[in-house]
Amino acid sequence: MNVFRCTGCGAELFERRASCPSCFGESFEEVDAGEPEAIVSSRLTVTPEGFADSYDLFIGKLGKARAIYRKE
Amino acid sequence: MAAIVSAGFARFGKRKDSIMDIAAESAMPVVRSHRDEIDFALVSNCYSGEFNGISGINNLLTTYLSMDAVPSIRIDNTSGSGGAALFTAVSLVESGRARCVLLTGVEKMSERPTKEVTRIISSLLGDREKAAGPSLPSFAGLLTTLYMREFAATRESIAQVAVKNHRNGALNPNAHIQKVLTLEQVLQSNVIIDPLRLFEISPISDGAVSLLVVPDPEAPSFTDKPVHVKGIGMSSESSHLTARETLTDMPSVRRAGEIARRESGIDRPDLAELHDMATVLEIVEMESLGFYPRGEGWKAVLEGKTEIGGELPVNTSGGLNSKGHPIGASGVAQAAEVYLQLTGGAGGRQVRDARTGMAVSMAGFGNSATAAMMGLEK
Ligand SMILES: [Zn+2]
Q: Residue B150 and residue B148: Cα distance in Å, rounded?
Protein backbone atom coordinates (compact mmCIF):
# COMPACT_ATOMS: atom_id res chain seq x y z
CA MET A 1 0.00 0.00 0.00
CA ASN A 2 1.39 3.40 -1.00
CA VAL A 3 2.03 6.52 1.07
CA PHE A 4 2.93 10.04 0.01
CA ARG A 5 6.44 10.85 1.26
CA CYS A 6 7.56 14.46 1.57
CA THR A 7 10.82 14.87 -0.36
CA GLY A 8 11.81 17.69 2.03
CA CYS A 9 11.49 16.08 5.48
CA GLY A 10 10.46 12.47 4.87
CA ALA A 11 7.06 12.76 6.55
CA GLU A 12 4.58 10.18 5.24
CA LEU A 13 0.91 10.79 4.59
CA PHE A 14 -1.97 8.45 3.72
CA GLU A 15 -3.94 11.32 2.17
CA ARG A 16 -2.43 13.64 -0.42
CA ARG A 17 -1.97 17.30 0.49
CA ALA A 18 -0.74 20.34 -1.38
CA SER A 19 1.65 21.11 1.47
CA CYS A 20 3.46 18.98 4.07
CA PRO A 21 2.03 19.40 7.62
CA SER A 22 5.56 19.04 9.10
CA CYS A 23 7.78 21.26 6.89
CA PHE A 24 5.26 22.88 4.50
CA GLY A 25 7.26 21.52 1.55
CA GLU A 26 5.27 21.03 -1.63
CA SER A 27 6.95 18.03 -3.22
CA PHE A 28 5.94 14.41 -2.56
CA GLU A 29 6.81 11.01 -3.96
CA GLU A 30 4.48 8.01 -3.86
CA VAL A 31 6.26 5.02 -2.30
CA ASP A 32 5.21 1.48 -1.34
CA ALA A 33 5.08 1.16 2.47
CA GLY A 34 4.25 -2.55 2.48
CA GLU A 35 1.16 -3.97 4.18
CA PRO A 36 -0.55 -2.02 6.98
CA GLU A 37 -0.37 -3.41 10.52
CA ALA A 38 -3.81 -3.39 12.17
CA ILE A 39 -4.33 -1.21 15.27
CA VAL A 40 -8.09 -1.62 15.61
CA SER A 41 -10.96 -2.99 13.55
CA SER A 42 -14.74 -3.09 13.51
CA ARG A 43 -17.33 -5.19 11.68
CA LEU A 44 -19.72 -2.83 9.87
CA THR A 45 -23.29 -3.85 9.07
CA VAL A 46 -24.43 -0.41 7.89
CA THR A 47 -22.25 0.75 5.02
CA PRO A 48 -22.27 3.52 2.38
CA GLU A 49 -24.06 3.14 -0.94
CA GLY A 50 -21.69 1.61 -3.51
CA PHE A 51 -20.15 -0.82 -0.97
CA ALA A 52 -21.01 -4.35 0.18
CA ASP A 53 -23.50 -4.61 3.05
CA SER A 54 -20.93 -5.83 5.56
CA TYR A 55 -17.14 -5.92 5.99
CA ASP A 56 -14.34 -5.29 8.48
CA LEU A 57 -12.93 -1.76 8.66
CA PHE A 58 -9.40 -1.19 9.99
CA ILE A 59 -7.13 1.58 11.17
CA GLY A 60 -3.54 0.40 10.83
CA LYS A 61 0.05 1.55 10.87
CA LEU A 62 1.44 2.04 7.37
CA GLY A 63 5.08 3.15 7.32
CA LYS A 64 5.21 6.39 9.30
CA ALA A 65 1.54 7.02 8.46
CA ARG A 66 -1.77 5.48 9.41
CA ALA A 67 -4.13 3.87 6.93
CA ILE A 68 -7.85 3.16 6.84
CA TYR A 69 -8.76 0.03 4.88
CA ARG A 70 -11.32 -2.77 4.69
CA LYS A 71 -11.35 -6.54 4.34
CA GLU A 72 -14.46 -8.19 2.93
CA MET B 1 -21.36 39.75 23.63
CA ALA B 2 -24.79 38.59 22.43
CA ALA B 3 -27.94 37.12 23.88
CA ILE B 4 -30.51 34.53 22.85
CA VAL B 5 -33.96 35.99 23.45
CA SER B 6 -36.35 33.55 21.77
CA ALA B 7 -36.48 29.94 20.55
CA GLY B 8 -38.82 27.95 18.32
CA PHE B 9 -38.94 24.19 17.68
CA ALA B 10 -40.14 21.77 15.02
CA ARG B 11 -40.25 18.29 16.52
CA PHE B 12 -37.37 15.99 15.53
CA GLY B 13 -38.31 12.67 13.93
CA LYS B 14 -39.38 11.21 10.62
CA ARG B 15 -41.56 13.98 9.19
CA LYS B 16 -43.85 14.03 6.16
CA ASP B 17 -43.58 17.83 5.77
CA SER B 18 -41.24 19.54 3.31
CA ILE B 19 -37.94 21.00 4.51
CA MET B 20 -39.42 24.50 4.07
CA ASP B 21 -42.42 23.68 6.24
CA ILE B 22 -40.24 22.12 8.93
CA ALA B 23 -37.99 25.21 8.96
CA ALA B 24 -41.00 27.54 9.02
CA GLU B 25 -42.64 25.60 11.85
CA SER B 26 -39.64 26.45 14.06
CA ALA B 27 -39.14 29.98 12.73
CA MET B 28 -42.67 31.35 12.62
CA PRO B 29 -43.22 31.62 16.40
CA VAL B 30 -40.05 33.77 16.52
CA VAL B 31 -40.82 35.75 13.36
CA ARG B 32 -44.44 36.41 14.36
CA SER B 33 -43.33 38.34 17.43
CA HIS B 34 -40.25 40.07 15.95
CA ARG B 35 -40.82 40.47 12.21
CA ASP B 36 -39.99 44.18 12.21
CA GLU B 37 -36.74 43.77 14.15
CA ILE B 38 -35.10 40.87 12.26
CA ASP B 39 -32.41 42.31 9.98
CA PHE B 40 -30.38 39.18 9.16
CA ALA B 41 -31.07 35.45 8.76
CA LEU B 42 -28.62 32.56 9.07
CA VAL B 43 -29.64 29.09 7.99
CA SER B 44 -27.61 26.23 9.43
CA ASN B 45 -28.00 23.44 6.92
CA CYS B 46 -25.65 20.91 5.48
CA TYR B 47 -27.27 18.66 2.90
CA SER B 48 -30.29 20.38 1.31
CA GLY B 49 -28.51 20.02 -2.04
CA GLU B 50 -27.90 16.30 -1.61
CA PHE B 51 -31.06 15.33 0.30
CA ASN B 52 -33.64 17.76 -1.06
CA GLY B 53 -32.27 18.87 -4.42
CA ILE B 54 -32.29 22.59 -3.59
CA SER B 55 -29.68 25.33 -3.43
CA GLY B 56 -29.89 28.73 -1.80
CA ILE B 57 -32.04 27.47 1.06
CA ASN B 58 -31.32 30.64 3.04
CA ASN B 59 -33.03 32.92 0.53
CA LEU B 60 -35.79 30.38 -0.16
CA LEU B 61 -36.54 30.38 3.56
CA THR B 62 -36.58 34.15 4.06
CA THR B 63 -38.96 34.37 1.09
CA TYR B 64 -41.14 31.56 2.47
CA LEU B 65 -41.36 33.52 5.73
CA SER B 66 -42.13 36.72 3.74
CA MET B 67 -39.00 38.49 4.87
CA ASP B 68 -38.03 38.89 1.23
CA ALA B 69 -35.57 41.76 1.71
CA VAL B 70 -33.77 40.39 4.78
CA PRO B 71 -30.19 39.34 3.90
CA SER B 72 -29.27 35.76 4.66
CA ILE B 73 -26.43 33.24 4.50
CA ARG B 74 -26.44 29.46 4.62
CA ILE B 75 -23.85 28.01 6.99
CA ASP B 76 -22.54 24.52 6.19
CA ASN B 77 -19.95 22.99 8.47
CA THR B 78 -21.26 19.40 8.33
CA SER B 79 -22.62 18.17 11.66
CA GLY B 80 -21.07 21.22 13.35
CA SER B 81 -23.05 23.67 11.22
CA GLY B 82 -25.21 24.79 14.15
CA GLY B 83 -22.29 25.81 16.33
CA ALA B 84 -20.62 27.58 13.40
CA ALA B 85 -23.89 29.42 12.72
CA LEU B 86 -24.20 30.52 16.36
CA PHE B 87 -20.57 31.70 16.22
CA THR B 88 -21.45 33.72 13.10
CA ALA B 89 -24.65 35.14 14.62
CA VAL B 90 -22.77 36.30 17.71
CA SER B 91 -20.05 37.83 15.52
CA LEU B 92 -22.61 39.66 13.37
CA VAL B 93 -24.34 41.32 16.32
CA GLU B 94 -21.06 42.01 18.14
CA SER B 95 -19.64 43.76 15.09
CA GLY B 96 -22.77 45.86 14.73
CA ARG B 97 -23.41 44.54 11.20
CA ALA B 98 -26.70 43.11 12.40
CA ARG B 99 -28.94 43.93 15.34
CA CYS B 100 -31.34 41.01 15.32
CA VAL B 101 -30.42 37.68 13.74
CA LEU B 102 -32.86 34.87 13.05
CA LEU B 103 -30.85 31.65 13.24
CA THR B 104 -32.62 28.58 11.86
CA GLY B 105 -31.05 25.12 11.82
CA VAL B 106 -32.82 22.59 9.63
CA GLU B 107 -32.33 19.25 7.91
CA LYS B 108 -34.66 16.80 6.18
CA MET B 109 -32.94 13.43 5.76
CA SER B 110 -35.45 10.64 6.26
CA GLU B 111 -36.72 10.35 2.67
CA ARG B 112 -33.44 8.79 1.57
CA PRO B 113 -32.40 5.15 2.07
CA THR B 114 -29.91 4.62 4.92
CA LYS B 115 -27.10 3.55 2.56
CA GLU B 116 -27.47 6.76 0.55
CA VAL B 117 -27.51 8.91 3.72
CA THR B 118 -24.40 7.04 4.90
CA ARG B 119 -22.60 7.72 1.60
CA ILE B 120 -23.55 11.40 1.58
CA ILE B 121 -22.37 11.95 5.15
CA SER B 122 -19.04 10.14 4.49
CA SER B 123 -18.33 12.58 1.67
CA LEU B 124 -16.60 14.83 4.23
CA LEU B 125 -13.66 12.38 4.42
CA GLY B 126 -10.42 12.41 2.44
CA ASP B 127 -10.48 10.53 -0.87
CA ARG B 128 -8.51 7.46 0.19
CA GLU B 129 -10.20 7.20 3.59
CA LYS B 130 -13.58 7.41 1.86
CA ALA B 131 -12.58 4.72 -0.65
CA ALA B 132 -12.10 2.27 2.26
CA GLY B 133 -15.87 2.41 2.87
CA PRO B 134 -16.22 3.81 6.39
CA SER B 135 -19.38 5.43 7.64
CA LEU B 136 -18.94 8.37 10.04
CA PRO B 137 -20.36 6.29 12.94
CA SER B 138 -17.87 3.51 12.10
CA PHE B 139 -15.12 5.68 13.59
CA ALA B 140 -17.13 5.74 16.82
CA GLY B 141 -17.09 1.93 16.78
CA LEU B 142 -13.31 1.97 16.42
CA LEU B 143 -13.03 4.66 19.10
CA THR B 144 -15.13 2.58 21.52
CA THR B 145 -12.67 -0.32 21.23
CA LEU B 146 -9.67 2.02 21.55
CA TYR B 147 -11.16 3.84 24.56
CA MET B 148 -12.02 0.63 26.42
CA ARG B 149 -8.55 -0.80 25.64
CA GLU B 150 -6.65 2.34 26.70
CA PHE B 151 -8.57 3.17 29.88
CA ALA B 152 -10.04 -0.21 30.94
CA ALA B 153 -13.52 1.28 30.66
CA THR B 154 -16.39 -1.17 30.97
CA ARG B 155 -18.73 -1.86 28.07
CA GLU B 156 -21.66 -1.04 30.39
CA SER B 157 -20.33 2.47 31.07
CA ILE B 158 -20.49 3.32 27.35
CA ALA B 159 -24.00 1.89 26.98
CA GLN B 160 -25.15 3.71 30.12
CA VAL B 161 -24.87 6.98 28.14
CA ALA B 162 -27.68 5.70 25.91
CA VAL B 163 -29.79 4.71 28.92
CA LYS B 164 -29.42 8.22 30.37
CA ASN B 165 -29.98 10.05 27.10
CA HIS B 166 -33.08 8.02 26.20
CA ARG B 167 -34.50 8.67 29.67
CA ASN B 168 -33.88 12.41 29.15
CA GLY B 169 -35.23 12.33 25.59
CA ALA B 170 -38.50 10.77 26.76
CA LEU B 171 -38.95 13.97 28.84
CA ASN B 172 -38.43 16.17 25.76
CA PRO B 173 -41.56 16.51 23.60
CA ASN B 174 -39.39 17.57 20.62
CA ALA B 175 -37.17 14.46 20.74
CA HIS B 176 -37.31 11.75 18.07
CA ILE B 177 -37.10 8.53 20.11
CA GLN B 178 -39.69 8.65 22.88
CA LYS B 179 -38.56 5.50 24.61
CA VAL B 180 -37.03 4.71 28.01
CA LEU B 181 -34.47 1.89 27.73
CA THR B 182 -32.80 -0.41 30.23
CA LEU B 183 -29.09 -1.21 30.04
CA GLU B 184 -30.03 -4.74 28.92
CA GLN B 185 -32.16 -3.38 26.07
CA VAL B 186 -29.28 -1.20 24.87
CA LEU B 187 -26.74 -4.03 25.09
CA GLN B 188 -29.08 -6.50 23.39
CA SER B 189 -30.06 -4.25 20.48
CA ASN B 190 -28.57 -5.08 17.06
CA VAL B 191 -24.85 -4.60 16.58
CA ILE B 192 -24.46 -1.86 13.96
CA ILE B 193 -20.76 -1.09 14.17
CA ASP B 194 -19.07 -3.60 16.37
CA PRO B 195 -19.12 -3.09 19.38
CA LEU B 196 -21.70 -0.27 19.13
CA ARG B 197 -25.37 -1.21 19.16
CA LEU B 198 -28.42 0.34 17.51
CA PHE B 199 -29.49 2.46 20.51
CA GLU B 200 -25.98 3.90 20.91
CA ILE B 201 -25.99 5.68 17.55
CA SER B 202 -28.10 8.72 16.68
CA PRO B 203 -31.04 7.99 14.36
CA ILE B 204 -31.68 9.59 10.96
CA SER B 205 -34.05 12.47 11.74
CA ASP B 206 -35.75 15.50 10.27
CA GLY B 207 -36.22 18.66 12.29
CA ALA B 208 -35.60 22.34 12.82
CA VAL B 209 -34.87 24.83 15.60
CA SER B 210 -34.83 28.64 15.46
CA LEU B 211 -33.21 31.19 17.76
CA LEU B 212 -33.20 34.95 17.91
CA VAL B 213 -29.78 36.49 18.65
CA VAL B 214 -29.40 40.17 19.61
CA PRO B 215 -26.70 42.37 21.22
CA ASP B 216 -26.64 42.13 25.05
CA PRO B 217 -27.80 45.74 25.63
CA GLU B 218 -30.88 45.18 23.43
CA ALA B 219 -31.88 41.91 25.09
CA PRO B 220 -34.14 43.37 27.84
CA SER B 221 -36.36 44.99 25.19
CA PHE B 222 -37.08 41.51 23.77
CA THR B 223 -37.54 39.46 26.95
CA ASP B 224 -37.15 39.60 30.71
CA LYS B 225 -35.23 36.29 30.55
CA PRO B 226 -32.36 36.60 28.06
CA VAL B 227 -29.62 33.99 27.95
CA HIS B 228 -26.23 35.56 27.32
CA VAL B 229 -23.51 33.97 25.21
CA LYS B 230 -20.61 34.77 27.53
CA GLY B 231 -17.87 32.98 25.62
CA ILE B 232 -17.69 31.18 22.31
CA GLY B 233 -14.72 29.38 20.77
CA MET B 234 -14.15 27.51 17.57
CA SER B 235 -11.25 25.28 16.58
CA SER B 236 -10.44 22.65 13.98
CA GLU B 237 -8.45 19.46 13.58
CA SER B 238 -7.28 17.51 10.53
CA SER B 239 -10.06 16.27 8.25
CA HIS B 240 -7.87 13.22 7.69
CA LEU B 241 -8.33 10.81 10.57
CA THR B 242 -5.17 9.04 9.41
CA ALA B 243 -3.21 12.21 10.24
CA ARG B 244 -4.27 12.20 13.91
CA GLU B 245 -2.12 10.89 16.75
CA THR B 246 -5.09 9.44 18.61
CA LEU B 247 -8.87 9.26 18.47
CA THR B 248 -9.33 9.13 22.26
CA ASP B 249 -8.81 12.88 22.60
CA MET B 250 -10.62 15.59 20.63
CA PRO B 251 -8.20 18.54 20.30
CA SER B 252 -10.74 20.71 18.44
CA VAL B 253 -13.21 20.27 21.32
CA ARG B 254 -10.50 20.93 23.90
CA ARG B 255 -9.32 24.16 22.23
CA ALA B 256 -12.85 25.45 21.55
CA GLY B 257 -13.78 24.73 25.17
CA GLU B 258 -10.70 26.55 26.47
CA ILE B 259 -11.66 29.69 24.53
CA ALA B 260 -15.26 29.56 25.77
CA ARG B 261 -14.12 29.11 29.36
CA ARG B 262 -11.55 31.89 29.18
CA GLU B 263 -13.90 34.40 27.54
CA SER B 264 -16.74 33.66 29.94
CA GLY B 265 -14.68 33.28 33.11
CA ILE B 266 -16.81 30.20 33.86
CA ASP B 267 -14.78 27.07 34.47
CA ARG B 268 -17.52 24.52 34.96
CA PRO B 269 -21.08 24.97 33.66
CA ASP B 270 -24.20 23.81 35.51
CA LEU B 271 -25.08 21.58 32.52
CA ALA B 272 -23.78 20.74 29.04
CA GLU B 273 -25.11 19.62 25.67
CA LEU B 274 -22.48 17.56 23.86
CA HIS B 275 -22.28 15.99 20.40
CA ASP B 276 -23.19 12.35 21.14
CA MET B 277 -23.53 11.10 17.58
CA ALA B 278 -22.48 7.88 19.34
CA THR B 279 -22.42 7.17 23.08
CA VAL B 280 -18.63 7.03 23.37
CA LEU B 281 -18.25 10.55 21.97
CA GLU B 282 -20.09 12.08 24.92
CA ILE B 283 -17.51 10.55 27.27
CA VAL B 284 -14.47 11.57 25.21
CA GLU B 285 -15.80 15.14 24.80
CA MET B 286 -16.38 15.47 28.57
CA GLU B 287 -12.72 14.61 29.04
CA SER B 288 -11.49 16.91 26.27
CA LEU B 289 -13.49 19.72 27.89
CA GLY B 290 -11.81 19.02 31.24
CA PHE B 291 -15.02 18.06 33.06
CA TYR B 292 -13.21 14.86 34.06
CA PRO B 293 -9.58 13.72 33.72
CA ARG B 294 -8.64 11.82 30.57
CA GLY B 295 -9.73 8.19 30.80
CA GLU B 296 -12.13 8.80 33.70
CA GLY B 297 -15.27 10.11 32.01
CA TRP B 298 -16.77 6.62 31.92
CA LYS B 299 -16.62 6.44 35.73
CA ALA B 300 -18.56 9.71 36.02
CA VAL B 301 -21.29 8.18 33.84
CA LEU B 302 -21.49 5.03 36.02
CA GLU B 303 -21.61 7.17 39.18
CA GLY B 304 -24.60 9.11 37.84
CA LYS B 305 -22.72 12.43 37.80
CA THR B 306 -23.99 13.26 34.28
CA GLU B 307 -27.66 12.57 34.98
CA ILE B 308 -30.30 15.22 35.69
CA GLY B 309 -29.78 15.77 39.43
CA GLY B 310 -26.09 14.83 39.13
CA GLU B 311 -23.17 17.22 39.57
CA LEU B 312 -22.97 18.13 35.85
CA PRO B 313 -25.98 16.95 33.82
CA VAL B 314 -25.05 16.17 30.19
CA ASN B 315 -27.49 16.06 27.29
CA THR B 316 -30.66 16.78 29.25
CA SER B 317 -32.40 17.17 25.86
CA GLY B 318 -31.77 13.50 25.10
CA GLY B 319 -28.74 14.44 23.04
CA LEU B 320 -28.30 13.48 19.42
CA ASN B 321 -28.58 9.91 20.65
CA SER B 322 -32.29 10.13 21.53
CA LYS B 323 -33.43 13.58 20.37
CA GLY B 324 -32.19 12.78 16.85
CA HIS B 325 -29.52 14.30 14.62
CA PRO B 326 -30.96 16.35 11.75
CA ILE B 327 -27.45 17.47 10.84
CA GLY B 328 -27.88 21.22 10.31
CA ALA B 329 -30.36 21.54 13.18
CA SER B 330 -28.37 19.67 15.85
CA GLY B 331 -25.98 22.41 16.96
CA VAL B 332 -28.78 24.98 17.10
CA ALA B 333 -30.88 22.56 19.15
CA GLN B 334 -28.04 22.21 21.66
CA ALA B 335 -27.96 25.98 22.24
CA ALA B 336 -31.77 25.99 22.39
CA GLU B 337 -31.74 23.33 25.13
CA VAL B 338 -29.38 25.47 27.20
CA TYR B 339 -31.72 28.42 26.58
CA LEU B 340 -34.72 26.40 27.80
CA GLN B 341 -32.85 25.11 30.84
CA LEU B 342 -31.61 28.56 31.92
CA THR B 343 -35.01 30.18 31.41
CA GLY B 344 -36.81 27.43 33.35
CA GLY B 345 -38.63 26.12 30.29
CA ALA B 346 -37.35 22.55 30.23
CA GLY B 347 -40.43 20.92 31.77
CA GLY B 348 -39.92 17.43 33.20
CA ARG B 349 -36.19 17.49 32.48
CA GLN B 350 -35.55 20.86 34.17
CA VAL B 351 -32.23 21.13 36.01
CA ARG B 352 -32.84 22.98 39.29
CA ASP B 353 -31.18 26.38 39.72
CA ALA B 354 -29.28 26.16 36.42
CA ARG B 355 -27.55 29.49 35.76
CA THR B 356 -24.86 28.50 33.25
CA GLY B 357 -24.69 25.97 30.43
CA MET B 358 -22.37 24.89 27.65
CA ALA B 359 -23.21 23.72 24.13
CA VAL B 360 -20.57 21.90 22.06
CA SER B 361 -21.26 21.42 18.38
CA MET B 362 -18.88 19.13 16.52
CA ALA B 363 -18.26 18.70 12.80
CA GLY B 364 -17.32 15.38 11.23
CA PHE B 365 -15.38 13.32 13.76
CA GLY B 366 -14.01 16.30 15.66
CA ASN B 367 -12.92 17.93 12.38
CA SER B 368 -14.05 21.14 13.99
CA ALA B 369 -15.87 22.16 17.13
CA THR B 370 -17.66 25.21 18.50
CA ALA B 371 -18.14 25.59 22.25
CA ALA B 372 -20.51 28.21 23.61
CA MET B 373 -20.72 29.09 27.31
CA MET B 374 -24.03 30.69 28.17
CA GLY B 375 -25.36 32.25 31.33
CA LEU B 376 -28.16 34.27 32.89
CA GLU B 377 -25.87 37.10 34.02
CA LYS B 378 -24.58 39.46 31.37
ZN1 LIG C 1 7.80 17.73 4.94
A: 6
